[in-house]
Amino acid sequence: MAIKLHSRFAIHPGAWLRVEVIDPHDLSVTDVAAKLRVTPRAMSNLLGARAGLSAEMAIRFERRSG
Fold it and tell me: pTM here?
């Protein structure tokens, strides 16, 4: 049987990335977008929880974190 969480416990991956990765390192959306080779708009949409985290974007973050 699967565990079901209430929807208010869910957090968007972009919001999590902003709080746990971007803000603590005092990075701008433009800086992160340039480092990951994506458009600032795409990064802004992800970090603003207006777009999902694709597998490709997850891989880009993973490669840059090492």
Answer: 0.80
